[in-house]
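Backbone shape codes:
===
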Amino acid sequence: MTCAGRGVCRHKQGLEGVVAKRATSVYRAGRIWAKLRHAETVDADVVGYVGPAARPHRVAVRLPDGRRVLSRALTAPLSAALARFIAAAGPGQRAHTDDGERYTTLEGLVVEVAAGTTRHATVSVTRIR
């Protein structure tokens, strides 16, 4: 295990995260346990979007390893900011992610994403660069 300070540790075995409880709590089953998942933030090129240009729902990104995937649903502020960028960029073409999901192409935008290391490998946009 390597630790980068402030309790941020990474396992080379690819652990999803940890399950923890308050130090003052007793050991018992139930909702007192919290699951803390590991995620890394990386910059990703936006290659497109899903939904109407005026209110995109998700973005298609190219991750540093070359995969093209769709993000999770965008927050309202991120969707509004992306809509302004789309309006200035003009119409795009139809394309598909590596999994065959359809999107409208878009170029010239970089976002920071939290790429989860869970079983479902989710990608969440945290901000536009």
Remarks:
- Residues 11 and 125 are 24 Å apart (CA to CA).
- Confidence is low (pLDDT under 50) at residues 1-11.
